[in-house]
Amino acid sequence: MSEFQLKPWLKSTLDQSPHFQALCQPLMDKLPISFIRLTRIFKNNTLAILTTRPDALEWYFCEKKYLLGMNEQSYEFYNSGFALSDSWPSAPEKINQLLQPLRDDFNIASELVFYYKKNDYVDIFEIALGRGHHQVNNLLMKHFRQIDQYVQHQLLVHPLIQKHCVENQIALPSEQKPTYLLKDGLIPQEDQQVASLTTRELESLFWLHQGKSVPEIAQILQISPRTTEKYVQQLKMKLQVYSPFQLGYLVGRYKEYFEPLFHEIKEN
């Protein structure tokens, strides 16, 4: 089996999903997974896949299957409306046609996102395989943030979902501890690593999130590349992030905490 470890908070979330093993085990057995994330929303039965590994499709199954494709000109995400169940043998070829320009331009190893919807909820998984160009990772993270916004909106405004959450003792986003409580020590020790970043580490994190390289960050901060590399390594160690995908997700997860700090950095 591939090397595969989850942070404690994520593992406890995944353990709540009875479909996680059935969906992910074949992938875990065959591929080196570098990152995975889950978000949940309640909806109808569908499965959506975006992948640069068409052969991975044979490992997935669901009552209904739909693809997310790429617009070859602008690389904007869109719903291709292509149902796998309608033409299963040609599915890999279809995905190749949609994603080949992206692979050619940015030399992506492999990126994957899929949603598993069962009964009245959906588990949303994100997986990064290999290391892609930072511009592609930024596009993918932008797409994932849009998914998050949709998920949050659905959970907060849909009365049936609210009723379901209350009846099944599921916490809505508004009931969870907000990230501004970080500095007050009111959420787990792991999360407090975020609040422990120094000013220089925060500045380095901001510019890394903007897709800047270490030499570029050094020039912006007017310090040596060697010192900048030290700050970057320190923040990666504190936050346990090792790829643009992980970094982008962490910034998104602590959006309310980082946004005012990043705004100040940008203004200065």
Automatic annotation (TrEMBL):
<keyword id="KW-0238">DNA-binding</keyword>
<dbReference type="InterPro" id="IPR000792">
    <property type="entry name" value="Tscrpt_reg_LuxR_C"/>
</dbReference>
<dbReference type="GO" id="GO:0003677">
    <property type="term" value="F:DNA binding"/>
</dbReference>
<dbReference type="Pfam" id="PF00196">
    <property type="entry name" value="GerE"/>
</dbReference>
<dbReference type="InterPro" id="IPR016032">
    <property type="entry name" value="Sig_transdc_resp-reg_C-effctor"/>
</dbReference>
<dbReference type="GO" id="GO:0006355">
    <property type="term" value="P:regulation of DNA-templated transcription"/>
</dbReference>
<dbReference type="InterPro" id="IPR036388">
    <property type="entry name" value="WH-like_DNA-bd_sf"/>
</dbReference>
<protein>
    <submittedName>
        <fullName>Response regulator containing a CheY-like receiver domain and an HTH DNA-binding domain protein</fullName>
    </submittedName>
</protein>
<feature type="domain" description="HTH luxR-type">
    <location>
        <begin position="190"/>
        <end position="255"/>
    </location>
</feature>
